[in-house]
Design brief:
By secondary structure, the protein is α/β, with parallel strands linked by helices. It has a single domain, classed as Alpha-Beta Barrel (TIM Barrel), CATH 3.20.20. It has 9 helices and 8 strands. It is globular. Bound molecules: pyridoxal-5'-phosphate.
Amino acid sequence: MPDLIHNLDAVRQRIALAAQVAGRDPRSVALLAVSKTFPAEDVRAAHAAGQRAFGENYVQEALTKLDALADLRESIEWHFIGPLQSNKTRPVAERFDWVHSIDRLKIAQRLAEQRPDGMPPLNVCVQVNVSGEASKSGVLPEEAADVAHAIAALPTLRLRGLMAIPEPAGSIEQQRVPHRALRELFDRLRAAGLELDTLSMGMSDDLEAAVLEGATMVRIGTAIFGARDYSN
Ligand SMILES: *Cc1c(COP(=O)(O)O)cnc(C)c1O
């Protein structure tokens, strides 16, 4: 899969360049490879090229892939980043390392109850609706502090930070606006005493804007694996 290896390299270079422009250490930006809709073999190839963190959106698809890649489990970090219904939380609590898409307290409470004894805490981010559309999931910015404090008190979860999926925007300046809003909210929550270290923002089309505004984890699918085909 020469394209995949080349793409992965190109994405790493985009991160490094954006970090340089921002005056940041490129190692302060983690790369999450979003493998939804792509086969386990592609994940295996990216893993062989040194990629360790992978993001999935759909529970059933993800579980099939985790099974196919069970031999790599110790060296892969699995991140759940899609909308999560309350009747689908159990396998996510049992098998993932991270969940970025906590959009209500109830989901966090279920994940906390269902996280098995003996596993490390499940790392979680609160998804925030920074673009304000009714259709987008995520807590409203004004609700985020209450939700975050409640989650931080759950013993089997470890609240790491905030996640957003801003609306597409044309220019990098426009792209920076919602990313900046998420970072300012992150700074306020930290100032209020929450020990957050993760700002999960930036996708294939707005990676640079996100890194300029302080992203510590970018979630990149298309630019690594290619265009997604949802027909099957
Ligand atoms: C699909 C997806 C991504 C990756 O998007 P690309 O534009 O393909 O890079 C990132 N985050 C979330 C939450 C996604 O659902």
